[in-house]
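Sample 1 of the test manifest.
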Amino acid sequence: MQMRFYTLTDYPTGLPDRALFKLESQTLPELAEGEVRIRNSWLSVDPYMRGRMSGIHTYVAPFELGKPMEGAAIGEVIESNDARLNVGDKVSHMGGWRDIAQLPAQEVTPLPDIDVPEQAYLGVLGMPGMTAWTGLNLIAECRPGDNVLVSAASGAVGSMVVQLAKAKGCHVVGIAGAAHKLAWLESLSVEPVSYRDRNSHELSDAIRLASPNGIDVYYENVGGICLEAALSQLNEGARIAVCGMINDYNAEEPTPGPSNLAQLIMRKAKMQGFIVADYWEHYPEFLKEVAPQVSAGKIDYKETVKEGLENTPEAFLTLFEGGNTGKMLVKLDS
Amino acid sequence: MQMRFYTLTDYPTGLPDRALFKLESQTLPELAEGEVRIRNSWLSVDPYMRGRMSGIHTYVAPFELGKPMEGAAIGEVIESNDARLNVGDKVSHMGGWRDIAQLPAQEVTPLPDIDVPEQAYLGVLGMPGMTAWTGLNLIAECRPGDNVLVSAASGAVGSMVVQLAKAKGCHVVGIAGAAHKLAWLESLSVEPVSYRDRNSHELSDAIRLASPNGIDVYYENVGGICLEAALSQLNEGARIAVCGMINDYNAEEPTPGPSNLAQLIMRKAKMQGFIVADYWEHYPEFLKEVAPQVSAGKIDYKETVKEGLENTPEAFLTLFEGGNTGKMLVKLDS
C-alpha cells in the first residue's frame, strides 16, 4: 500500500517557503507485530510546528529533513496486528502530514465514546483545548470574577480560553485582528479589541476601555505589542500564562521584548511558560469538564478547513497570516 | 529643636539632577502624646527610592514635593512621650533623609538584642537582606544544588543572595562590573562574570562558561542584557525572581526588553516580581536564620559610607553609577 507524506527539505529562516515542503510517496512495508495501519481523515496543523522546523532541539525534537513530518491526526484503523485495536476503530495519533499512517498500536489512542464530530479531538477536545484549559486553570490559576485578557483570542487555543473563562464567570477581553473575528468574539460575550493599526500605547488604551478594572489573568499567545500593552494594565498579583509568542516565530532578526517588564515588580505579577505535554495527566479531568459542554453545543468552535493532503503546507502557512478562525484543519478524502 | 531634612523640588526625568534635592531646616513642634524624637545615626539610600521620585503611584506612594523625604534609618531615642520607648533606645524607622526624626512610637521598631553593628539593620539584617532571602527562598524556591545566577551581585541585595545561596549548597554565578567587585565575589567562592564591554551574546557565553549546567534560579536586579543573557541559559523549570531592574529606572526612553522571552515557554520557566513588604511576616524567620550567621562573621558584607547629612543625595546618586560595593549608607555625626 502506498503512503503519501510530506517531508521538509531544509530548515527555513523566517516564514517558511512553500517550496520547502515536498510531497513524497512510498510503499509501506508489511505490518509488523503490534502495528496498525490507519487511513487518516483529518490532519492538524499548529503554530508549535514552526519550532520543529529548525535544527535546534527546543522542547520537542526538530523534524528530520527528508523524513515524514509529524503532527496530530484522526483516522480509522484499516489493518491491525495488535489485539488492542480493531479494523474500523476511530483513533487519534501523531502520524499526521500523511494520508496513511503505520504505527505501533501503543502510540495510537481510540477516540472516546462522546457524541462530537471526530475532528473535535484535534481542536476543542484535543491539544488546543487542553492547552487552553491548562494555561487558564493550572498556570494562570484563573478564578471566578477575574478580569481575563487573551491574545489571538479567535484562534484554536484562544477561542477556547475565552469561552472557558466566560463559563467561569470572568470578565473577558479578546485581542484579534480581522473584523469577522472581532464579531465572533462579541457574539461570545467577549469584549473584542483590535490590534490592527495600533501601537502598544493605543492598544493599552483600548484594553483599559474594555476592562476598566484592569487585568488579573493574561493568556499570552502572541508576544510583541500585545504583551507590552497587557503588562501596562496588570492588576496586583496578576498571572500571565505564556502559551505562545507567534509574533516571534518567523522573525529573522531578534524582536525586542516589552519595554515595561518592570511592571512585573510593580504589580507583583507572575509570568510562566508552559508546555501542555507536561500536564497531560490532567487530560481526563479536562475531558470530563469540557466534553459535555462541547457535546451539548455550549462551546462555539470554528474550524477553518483546507481539503486534500496536498494543501497541508498552505494550511500550515495560513496560521501565520491570521488566515484561520478557530482550529486550522486539513480534511482528507475518505 | 531644629530638624534638617531633604526635600525633592521636582520630579526628575532620567538620572535625577543633584539640584533637585534641597536641604531644609525647621523647628520641630513639641512632642505629642505617643510620639518619640530620634537622633539618626545612619541613613539608608536604596534604588527603590527612584520609584518614589515620580508623580506616579507605583507600589509605594511618590515623595511629596517640598515635604521631608523618607527612607530607612537607625537612630537613638532622645525624647519619648510613649511608654513603649525610652531615651537611649536604639531604633529603626522610616524617618530617613533627615538628622532628627519625630514620629509616632508605633512607627518605630527597637533594634533586636543581637551582637551586630547597628547599621546592619539597614543592610544584611534589614530590608536588603530580607529582600535577598525572600526572593531566593519564597519566590525563586531555591533548592540545594541549584545553579543560581545573580545580577548586581555585589550590591546590598545581590551580595546577600549569593552568600545565602552558597550557604544552601548552590553553584553560584554573580554578575558585576568593576574588577574589585568581581574579586570580592570570587573571594566568596562565587563565579564572577563581568558585564562590561559585552553584548548579550557575549554575556551569555560567559555565563555558560561559569555555569556549564545551565541556570535554575536567576535573581534579577538589573534587567537589560543581563536578563536577555540569563534567559538564554535557563534550565527546564527555572525560576526568575524579579527584584529590580535598575538598568531601566533612569531611562528617559522606553528601553526594549529581552528579545528571547519565548525561552519562558521553551524552558517552562517562571518569572515573578515581588515587593518585600508583602512578605514582612516572614521577617522573624529570616532574622532567626540569618542573624546568627552575621553575628558569627559568616556573612561577609561590605558597606560604602558617605559621611554627613549633606552627602545623602550624592550617596543616592552613586547607586546608579555602580559606585557602591555592598550597602550604601550615610553616617551622621552623633
